[in-house]
Structure formats: C-alpha cells, structure tokens
C-alpha cells in the first residue's frame, strides 16, 4: 500500500552523488564520517547484524535494477534471495530479513524512535498503509527527508524527498531495526591551508597513512588571486569549503571539490548582505551545511549558513542571542559536535576576548537557539593571555587548543555532559620541543576519534601533531620538510 501525498519529487543530493562515486556519508560519532560503500556482495547474513551503509547499498540495488512495485512478485536481492517487491518487502530486503514482513509486522523487529533520532537505514512506517527507508535529512532543520521507497503499482523503487510535516500529519512513525549497527569509522585525509605574510593561500594534504600528498599548492592559481589575512576550512561531503578574509575586511568563499578542482572565489558579503569589517573567521560543517562564524573589528560575533543548495542566510548577531564574551571578541573557532545519541549535530563556537580569555557557546540544532557564553577558564583552569584558539569535535566531545602569548600550547576537552577537563601542556605531552614559539593554531577531528593539530610558529613554519584516542600525543613534525616551503606562514587552517 502507498501514500503519495508526502512525496516532493525525486532528487539527487550531494550525499547521493557521493554514493554513486563509491562513497557513503553518514552521521557518526564525529560529525560527517566517510565509509567505503559495500558492493553487491553483502557482508551480512540473513537476519544477522547489518551496517547502515550496507542497508542503503541494498536499497540502492533495487533502484539501480528498476524493480517494479508488486504485492505478489518477488525480486532478488544482491545475493539472489527473493523478497516481495512492495514497500514492506523493500524494507525487509534492505534490512536482510529472513522473510518479507508487512507494515504491521516490521515493528516486531524494530524499536520506535523519534524523528530527530533517525539515522541512515532506519524506517518510517505508517503501520496500516506504507513504509519507507530513511536515508538522511536533506536540510539542517530536519524538515525534508530523503528516503528509499517502492511507491505504487506501475512505478519502480525510488530515491526521493518526503516532507516531515506530511509524514507526521499522515501518521508515520520512526523505527530502528534491532540488528542494525553503525559502520566502523575510517580515517580521512587531513587538508591543511597555510596563509602567508604576503596574502597567499597554499594547500596540501596529509594522507591517512601519514605520508603527504605533495608540496603546498598555490590556491591563487586555482581559485583566482586574493590578498588574504585569515581563512578557515571545513569538509562538506568530499569538498573542502574555505571562507577567507581579504585585507580590506571582506569575506570570500571557495571550495576544493572532491575531484581536486577549485571553485572561483565568491563574494560572501554580496551573498549575505554583510556590511561589517571582518577580523577573524571560522567555519564548520553541520549536517553538511557550512556554518560561518565571524568576529568583526568592533568585537561583535556573527553567524550565517551556506545551505546545500548554495544559498546563503544573512548574518545574525550571536551576541544578541548568546550574550557578551566579557568584552570584544577577537579570535574565533567553530566546529560541529554530535549529541550523545549521535543523531543530532550542534554548532560549537569559542572566542577569545581582548583580555586573552576564552569563552564558549553553542547553537542547538533542534531549534537554532544559542547557549549563553561561558568562561572556559573557570571550568578548565587559568591560562596566560591567549593569542589563538582552535576547537574540533571528536565523537560527542569537544576538543580545544589554546596558544598563549608566550608561545605555549594547551589542550582541554568538553565532555558530552558539559564538564571540562583541566588544561594540559601539549608541548610537554608530545615530548618534543618546538624550534620556535607557537603563534597560530587549528585542529581537525578524525572519525575514529583522533585529533589533528596544525601549528604556525613564530619563524613562519608549519608543524603538525596529533592526539590519539588513548590521549597520547605524536611528536611534532615539520610539515614543510615533507611537502614544500610556501613562504612565511602567519595563519593556518585544518579540515
């Protein structure tokens, strides 16, 4: 049985494009995590545990095979086992069940959950009529879901968008198969940007095996010339999105696409209507949407979003929502952190004020409200005046790095319950001294929980270290000795 009122038409999103390229992006403990998509030869057994990526790959199999809807005909899964090719048979096939259940009996092998807890491979079931397989939320507000469905007689298995409002009004309930398991997160390459004193931006990549992909590449030659004083980057799918500040305080956007090509610089001020003069910028990927946080020369904190459809919101004044950071904000960093259940993603923001103190806030995904700014040093311990900060999400935890004015580096973490770890000395933890004082810093969390840290030093060099999941640190490594010399580096970004 079916209900056609909720459908909004077939679409191919950024996530869908990744799947067809052999990659699958899914929500996991560290934000946007990339998994190798399983091939037709499934890893699961009938009625056994099955990963979310395999569930989606099995669903995609019937889409690719153009399997028609039928309440009497059985169609093969990738291994040749037959399943009734109606809506509930389709979900039964995707979950690799031993038989084709119906909409009324699928809840017997699953657990009811909330809409905002939906993850790839869960189901939306109107028990008396129709069921679809959930892929992902198309938008950060969770108003539009992309689903797999066998819709009706005369139609074929589809991948399309359904609205949340109609799903709710028509009585669809969210369910999670009892034997579905999260995929094991795999490491991703680390992308590094280095801003030089003459306004250049250079880019390189650290491979997952610890080797480097080559020398620093000049972004000006790819995206166009720009006189840059600050920049930050974040991954949305396979693309590295970068927002930069030019020397005149204007904001600009480019992206290194998954295929290695760069987009031309775009004028963010023109897209958002921003009239302030930017001083520092941070970006974060929240549900694959680019969140931009800016401090201006007056010390105000601003926030905007670049949506999946490439449209931009206007900048909103964060201080109006979250209060003051005890004075003018100077430096800013932003990241996405998952809820304890892994089903939702919040934006976290840290700033330093003119006194060199660190303040933290967060934007709740569920309703867009902001937490009040809180004094981090009250929670994690006092530091000398802070010159730069970086935050990154690892799992459900927030990691924070601080560079003090005397060139030292400290680390703390905010646990999922809101408590903070004491600041620890990173240089001491690595067991290797820096040849020159730290000046600027950025960090990126790995899907497996590792934390990468990139440092710009007073002599204009770039240094890398990492904090492993067991809380040990790698020795400092000279990035330029393994890549190339981009010039005198004054700022860094990592994603």
What secondary-structure arrangement, pairings included, does this model have?
Elements: E1 7-10, H1 14-20, E2 23-28, E3 31-36, E4 50-51, H2 52-65, E5 74-76, E6 82-84, H3 87-94, E7 110-113, E8 123-126, E9 130-137, E10 144-149, E11 158-163, H4 164-169, E12 173-177, E13 180-181, E14 190-196, E15 201-206, E16 217-218, H5 220-223, E17 228-236, E18 239-246, E19 251-256, E20 266-267, H6 268-272, E21 278-286, E22 289-296, E23 301-306, E24 316-317, H7 318-322, E25 329-338, E26 345-353, E27 358-363, E28 374-375, H8 376-380, E29 386-394, E30 397-404, E31 409-414, E32 424-425, H9 426-430, E33 438-445, E34 451-457, E35 462-467, E36 477-478, H10 479-482, E37 489-494
Parallel strand pairs: 4-13
Antiparallel strand pairs: 1-11, 2-3, 5-6, 7-12, 8-9, 8-12, 9-10, 10-11, 14-15, 14-37, 15-16, 17-18, 18-19, 19-20, 21-22, 22-23, 23-24, 25-26, 26-27, 27-28, 29-30, 30-31, 31-32, 33-34, 34-35, 35-36
Helix pairs in contact: 2-3
Task: Describe the structure using short key phrases.
495 residues, mainly beta, endopeptidase fold (from Nostoc punctiforme), Neuraminidase, 2 domains, 13% helix, elongated, disordered N terminus, signal
